Amino acid sequence: MYYRSFASLKMTKKGNNMKIAIISDIHDNLVNLENCLNWCNKNGIKEIICCGDITNSETLNFLASNFKNTIHLIKGNIELYNEAELEQYRNIKYYSKIGKIELESIVIGFCHEPYLAEKLARQGGYDIIFYGHTHKPWIEEKDEIKIINSGTLSAMFQKATFAVMEDDKIELKILENLGTGKRLGW
């Protein structure tokens, strides 16, 4: 089953009070990142999964400094920061190209490129896989594994979006509809 975009999606497994944000493809858009993080902080987001393309050191520092909880980070294809810089941030857990975590009995995989998401889906063992790169919000289901692209925070080629996973529901958030203040698109 394919969906061009999504508003919300129910999971078959239910977590206990899990509330995470999934972001990707920031491409140094600090205004949109700030708006997203302000929303996350005000709305009780406990962890962030970042599917890559933060881009430079300033944006990496801004992300780590403005969200105090855990950030799960993988490498995108356009990263300009040095991976050694990541060691200074206690709240960032870095996984290189592919990440896997279990939150509240839900096994989550995450990567940047779609081909890696497909590879993880073929391997199995995941309930959900998040990826980025295309900048296009997308849901696909293969063998009961949900494969989801949360879109782009940069607003490059698409509206600025991110996803929120709360318990057994995943919802796409369109940044301009959240009333977060500043706006900057490409």
Task: Outline the structure in words.
With 186 residues, this protein is α/β, with parallel strands linked by helices. It has one domain: Metallo-dependent phosphatases (Purple Acid Phosphatase, chain A, domain 2, 4-Layer Sandwich), CATH 3.60.21.10. The chain is built from 3 helices and 13 strands, in the order βββαβαββββαβββββ. It has helices spanning 30-42, 57-66, 114-123, and strands at 2-3, 8-10, 19-23, 47-50, 70-73, 92-94, 98-103, 106-111, 128-131, 138-142, 145-149, 161-166, 169-174. The strands form 2 sheets. It has a 7-stranded mixed sheet with strand order 2-13-12-3-4-5-6, with no helix packed on it. Strands 1-10-11-9-8-7 form a 6-stranded mixed sheet, with helices on one face. A hairpin with a 2-residue loop joins strand 7 and strand 8 (106-111). The radius of gyration is 15 Å and the shape is globular. It starts with a strand and ends in a 12-residue tail after the last strand.
Main sheet: strands, sense, barrel: 7 strands, mixed
In CATH, the homologous superfamily goes by the name: Metallo-dependent phosphatases
Beta strand count: 13
- The arrangement of helices and strands along the chain is EEEHEHEEEEHEEEEE
Q: Note the total helix count.
A: 3
Question: What's the topology here?
Answer:
Elements lengths: L1 E2 L4 E3 L8 E5 L6 H13 L4 E4 L6 H10 L3 E4 L18 E3 L3 E6 L2 E6 L2 H10 L4 E4 L6 E5 L2 E5 L11 E6 L2 E6 L12
Q: Which key phrases capture this entry?
A:
186 residues; Purple Acid Phosphatase, chain A, domain 2; six-stranded mixed beta sheet; 3 helices; 13 strands; globular
